[in-house]
Amino acid sequence: MIRLDALLARNLGCSKTAAAALLAAGRVRDESGQVLTDRRRAIDEAALPLPVNVDGARRALVAEAHVLLNKPTGVVTALRDPVHRTAYELVRSAPLYGELRPVGRLDMDTTGLLLWTSDGAWVSRLTHPKHAVPRTYEVALARPHRPLPQALVLDGGHRPRIQALSALAREGAHPSLQAPPEAAAFATITVVGGAYHEVRRIFAALGSHVLGLCRVGFGRLTLPRELPLGRFISVDVRQAISTC
Prior knowledge:
Layout: E1 2-3, H1 4-12, H2 16-24, E2 28-30, E3 42-43, E4 50-54, E5 57-61, E6 66-71, E7 75-76, E8 85-86, E9 101-102, E10 110-117, H3 120-127, E11 134-141, E12 161-167, E13 185-192, H4 198-205, E14 210-218, E15 221-222, E16 232-234
């Protein structure tokens, strides 16, 4: 159970005192139009989301939030940055914005699927190496890569866990893969883990160079082809590991 003022405060990104003031002023109504004034009213989390109207604007109050952002290039995976625009700014209108944290990272030049969650336990569950949640990427390359050897070792002795690697037709590539005209080959790769610049290092070791990189899968969650760059959707994060 969760108190109404606490639930309202979390969803509006304000203090419980400010939420209580909204309730006392009659500015919050349920979906039938009844004014909600009892700040101590206990809400069963199993009944969420709770539809309400705040100053006439419809809101669905939730206790946790998980969103999938189609990250564009030119933004960093951070809550704040003194120089660059952040991916966090792109989920500003998401539920529980103030509590959202990224699940892993995508570098500035990589597009695609970036999960955000308000539940820190899910960040650990999805990113810790022991859980082995795979990530799938589509890649635009400067030239075709060499065949994958049985045991690929990267610089520093890192041994990537590659589940799949195959050629990809340009016309079959995800719309969010930013492929320059000079791209000579395309590939799709699934790796377990998230070492620094791992996919770029893999293709460098295979004699090619990454010109464009887009994450299209995280566990069983996939990046919708119709989702524009810079936009997000709410998802059930449990789907990412349902069969992983």
